[in-house]
């Protein structure tokens, strides 16, 4: 795990770093009626990616850059458990978490004293055998009461396979940021500039309290929230920040000539890392302040965890 210069760590799990065996074969592209969703048309033109006020310089958040985009479309919500279940039912697809036999679960969601292994730098994560998209906390858990929540424990490989099957694709990082800003190039959050915190908890699903010891769940959710929770942004998109991290199409890279950036890029390239955006229900300003539009991170394409999902984009 690469840490920012100020020592602040990310809430994210360590990446797996290498694919176990060949990546799943991509599904044939086709629009499938069982995955119908609200799709929003995003105007093309000039936009902005990044920020001139980066919080984590090592992540490559800045500087702000002007971009030109063609019109495209994007799902109003992250892909839900119900939609992913339709994909699996129609294809027999096995996710990376299922192929590996485990995925990372937030330890607080497990029974006290559960005998599970944790990464040394992030002891709040637990490597749970049998955890996957359909059993988010491991054997005995299910998504029966979470059909409208975003699917989790999905890798970039899984997201790309679903996207191809559904007739779409993963958004680029530039498209994701452009859509999240809702037409306001200077927007810090999808809803504007209002800073969410432990008391001001009405904008998004993030952590409230002292991470990782105590979550007051002032926003109403300790884990994932339904994919259409909270107010949408000006384009009508839900939960572009908070709730779950979202995979993008791009390879992760820091645009800098510094020695730190070169080292980070070497690690990312060797693992084939892909960009993730938006932060999750585990983000808090005191620790993982990455629920900002410009914030970003990267992980290997076979990495999965209980706070990682995706949404689909489509050519205009």
Automatic annotation (TrEMBL):
InterPro entries: CTDL_fold, Sulfatase_Mod_Factor_Kinase, SUMF_dom, SUMF_sf
Signal sequence annotation: none
Pfam families: FGE-sulfatase
Coiled-coil annotated spans: none
Domain Sulfatase-modifying factor enzyme-like stretches: 39-313
PANTHER family: FORMYLGLYCINE-GENERATING ENZYME (PTHR23150:SF19), SULFATASE MODIFYING FACTOR 1, 2 (PTHR23150)
Name used for this protein in its record: Formylglycine-generating enzyme family protein
């Amino acid at each position: 795990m690469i840490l920012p210069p100020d020592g602040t760590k990310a809430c994210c799990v360590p990446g797996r770093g290498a694919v176990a065996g060949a990546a799943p074969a991509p599904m044939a592209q086709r629009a499938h009626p069982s995955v119908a969703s609200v799709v929003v048309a995003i105007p093309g033109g000039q936009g902005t990616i990044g920020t001139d006020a980066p919080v984590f310089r090592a992540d490559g958040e800045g500087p702000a850059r002007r971009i030109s985009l063609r019109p495209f479309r994007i799902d109003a919500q992250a892909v839900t458990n119900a939609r992913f279940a339709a994909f699996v039912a129609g294809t027999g697809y096995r996710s990376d978490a299922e192929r590996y036999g485990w995925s990372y679960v937030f330890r607080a969601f497990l029974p006290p004293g559960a005998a599970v292994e944790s990464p040394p730098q992030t002891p709040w994560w637990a490597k749970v055998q049998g955890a996957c998209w359909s059993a988010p906390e491991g054997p005995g858990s299910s998504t029966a009461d979470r059909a409208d929540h975003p699917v989790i424990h999905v890798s970039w490989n899984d997201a790309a396979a679903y996207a191809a099957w559904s007739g779409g694709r993963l958004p680029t990082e530039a498209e994701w940021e452009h859509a999240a800003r809702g037409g306001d190039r200077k927007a810090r959050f999808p809803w504007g500039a209002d800073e969410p915190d432990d008391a001001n908890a009405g904008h998004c699903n993030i952590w409230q309290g002292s991470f990782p010891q105590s979550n007051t769940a002032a926003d109403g959710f300790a884990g994932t929230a339904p994919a259409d929770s909270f107010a949408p942004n000006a384009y009508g998109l839900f939960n572009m920040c908070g709730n779950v991290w979202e995979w993008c199409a791009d390879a992760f890279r820091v645009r800098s000539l510094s020695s730190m950036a070169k080292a980070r890029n070497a690690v990312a390239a060797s693992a084939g890392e892909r960009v993730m955006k938006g932060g999750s229900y585990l983000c808090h300003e005191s620790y993982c302040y990455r629920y900002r539009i410009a914030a970003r991170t990267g992980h290997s394409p076979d990495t999965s965890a209980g706070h990682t999902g995706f949404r689909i984009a489509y050519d205009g």
